[in-house]
Amino acid sequence: MDIPSCRERDSQVKKRGYILKPRVKIFLILLFVCYFGIIMFKQELKMDEQRERIHALKEQIAHTEDTNADLEHMIHYTDSDEYIEKVARERLGWVKKGEIIFIEKKKEN
Question: Domain spans of the chain?
Answer without folding.
Answer: 6-90
